[in-house]
Design brief:
Number of helices: 1
Strand content: 25-35%
Mean pLDDT: 81
Helix content: under 10%
Number of domains: 1
Distance between the termini: 39 Å
Strand order of the largest sheet: 1-8-7-2-3
Shape: globular
Radius of gyration: 15 Å
Length: 146
């Protein structure tokens, strides 16, 4: 089982203020156990990865576009950083896939090529079973550009 992580190039882009979270289109792609997204830490292009995209009922191929709340200055004494919150994603009646759900690949599809942002390891025994599946909110932090 892999751990959750941010891809190196995306982390660098956020920290250097090169990725504008206000303008980014972020997608969540559910991946099954034969993916390479969980180990390809230096990936810069989603199309070069083996996604093994989820195939259970209720899932939309290509991933789900997420809503990002406008970033605000982080008031926790980390000057120069801003936070943006990706709102929760709920997939109604998500059915079982042909293999276990391994995790979620978040990618920025408003860049060319699509850039992998982070991997969220699922790795749980609680696999989708036809009930609603929810991914709670995620907070992104990046350097402010102003």
């Amino acid at each position: 089982m892999a751990a959750s992580f941010c891809y190196a190039e995306a982390a660098r882009g956020f920290l250097n203020g090169e990725i504008d979270v206000n303008a980014a289109t972020v997608k969540a792609v559910l991946c099954m156990s034969s993916t390479t997204a969980d180990t390809d830490y230096d990936a810069t292009d989603v199309s070069a990865m083996t996604l093994d995209e989820y195939d259970g009922a209720g899932y939309t191929a290509g991933g789900h576009t997420l809503t990002i709340a406008a970033p605000a200055a982080d008031g926790t004494g980390q000057g120069g950083f801003a936070s943006a919150v990706v709102t929760a994603l709920t997939i109604l009646n998500l059915g079982a896939g042909t293999r276990d759900l391994a995790g979620v690949l978040f990618s920025i599809t408003s860049l060319t090529p699509d850039m992998p942002l982070c991997w969220l390891d699922y790795g749980g025994a609680d696999q989708p079973d036809g009930t609603n599946w929810t991914l709670a909110s995620i907070k992104l932090k990046g350097a402010t550009t102003s």
